[in-house]
Write a structure and sequence with these properties.
Elements: H1 6-41, H2 48-83, H3 85-103, H4 109-137, H5 143-151, H6 153-172, H7 177-186, H8 191-201, H9 206-213, H10 229-250, H11 253-267, H12 274-306, H13 308-328, H14 335-350, H15 356-362, H16 369-384, H17 386-396, H18 401-412, H19 416-421
Helix pairs in contact: 1-2, 1-3, 1-4, 1-5, 1-6, 1-7, 1-8, 2-3, 2-4, 2-16, 2-17, 3-4, 3-8, 4-16, 5-12, 5-15, 6-7, 6-12, 10-16, 11-12, 12-13, 12-14, 13-14, 13-18, 15-16, 17-18
Amino acid sequence: MLRLSRYQWTVLSAAWLGWGFDIFDGLLFNYVAPNCVPTLLNLPIGSAEAKVATLYWTGLLTSILLIGWSLGGIVFGYVCDRIGRRKTLLFTMLLYSLGTFFCAFAPNMEVLVICRIVASLGIGGEWVAGTSMVAEVVPEQSRVEAGALLHTSSPIGLFLATFVNYEIAGVLLPESPSTSWRYVFAVGLAPALVAFIVRMFIKEPERWQQAAATRKNLSFKELFTPELRTATLSGFLMTFVALLTWWSCNAFIPVVATGLAQLAAKAQGITATQVMLESWKTSTTYSFNAGGLIGALLTIPAAKYLGRRWMFAIYFLFSTFAVTVAFGAQLPVNLQTWSLLYFAIGMTVFGIFGSFTYYLPELFPTRLRAMGSGFCYNTGRLVTAIGPFLVGYIASQKANVLQGTFSILFLVGFIPLVGVLAMPWVIETRERVLPD
């Protein structure tokens, strides 16, 4: 049970909102891509050319987002240890909200790419500041619960992105797909309001203030000293495997859902309407997010009673099972079946991220906590950036785009097994006190 003071709850709430809106802004493009990409490329929405272009640009822009996200996380990790958690959290939230907002006014793909890069830098930096702040403010005995609770804002952010896209593209403007996506992006300005909460009510953690008073010059080389080399490797391996699997799967949920909806409509002898397409995207994404929410909360008992190593091994094994069954078996094309499948994928592939908000801060001392956590989390993301691009590119070269996507995602399902094989290099932190 969480035993937090009012101020500790305020810090957790501010970081929770920041991370939730972080994911909200980061994933908006995936939902609007089927309408946004053809519009900016002057292609008929729903045409064969538009589908291929959407798949290609979804993979490319997701990879670009990941590169910017990675660089932002690494750079702002260093900045966070230099200037503090509060200032970094405030600045990065403003950066990603403004970057997303200006996507609404993009006249072409080039401008959209630039806006997404700006947003991605802030998205990467916010996670580092938020997780470091929560780990340093909450009581020792509540760190795992607080960290997992912090991550629950991630599926909530995806819920919100799905809801906003459906309400705008599926309810308010179903007849205007060429413009509805701009309104979806405009909502991305909302996190800027939350930034003012951070400015008004949050102060720097005492742990950071004490460390800053006696701090030496910071250097990334310290992460590879004999004292920290194993910790850095451990954090990198776990995040790398989880990120590569998650992004390769999640980035294509709207594309897969759209293709399945069209197959279902064809089997019924009808034409898939925009409302039907948005309904499939919404239902499968909600299921994925719900699974991720429950999976994140289940990391609490898994980490506390089984330990971090066993927790990672179990989640990776079940991730392989969930993904390979979904994309390798010949399953019925109906909404209920695929909602259940995406729930299972979310519970495992998405749920494991509930552990990184407390595991990575446990690996590093206060003066290097943000930099170390940011380096592990975002170097892994930088390497995984190639994943969504390859999935999108290879699938787009197939004659049957949907079947091509299924074939690639089936192979993605074996990636978590690499994490299981890496267990000998994983540091167990179950009985550790947060290092100063």
